[in-house]
Task: structure prediction
Amino acid sequence: MTALMYHDVVAAGDEDASGFPGRDAALYKVTPETFSEHLDALRNLFLNPTNPSNPSNPSNPSNPPDPPDPPAPPDLSITFDDGGASAMAAADLLEARGFIGHFFITTNYIGTRGFAGEADLRELARRGHVIGSHSCSHPLRMGHCTVAQMLDEWRGSRAILSDILGADVRVASVPGGDFSMPVADAAAQAGITTLFTSEPSAQTQQLSGLTLAGRFTIQRWTTAKTVAALAAGSWLPRARQAAVWNAKKLTKRLGGERYLQLRRLLIGHGDEVRWGDQR
Result:
């Protein structure tokens, strides 16, 4: 399964309008124009070029009918982390091209400035999109939390979302990209059955009744060509993401708390957000 990880869809220069504020978070926010280009590239990728209703087919050159919506490919998931207010606009763009989204919600922020509200989440679910947990408080280093805190984050967020939607929520994504086996164990204990990580991989794993799925990260400079190549399984863009991700993991492991301090200095991330693991 291939999963793409988005965050927010916002106009250029208005990055703080949706999701977490700050220059760090803005790196993962794309404009509506860019997102539309990505979706068009994905739609074209999954259209069957041999279908006689496809106008690109030379066997049907005159007066062709409109191309059909592509089937939502079962092996492609388009995911959004954090739960920003732009989820509704993203859903409109997805639906216009025959796709659904997976929206992972940081439940402590539901209905606050820049974040989707309860009515938004119910509307998204009604329209066929998947709503899942992104923890309660979005710890920046989930893998470094205590087991008790991990359980509280997963159980609490699941309970809140299930209550809002009137349906059992059992899918989630790891906040902050800081994955470890205890994170997965706690998720499984909390009743989650599918957990998306930020590992750049199309492979899924089974662990204690939990399905682990990696994702490829989309940033504001990611091109439509790259998105289509990732979805198509091209080895080069996938290998590039894996190389960057593994280097980042090594830096985090060696740097510890100092890595976060250096990251703030380099990226310019300030105190706009009090992450769940900062006391």
Remarks:
- The first helix runs from residue 23 to 26.
- Residues 48-65 have pLDDT under 50 and may be disordered.
- The CA atoms of residues 143 and 183 lie 6 Å apart.
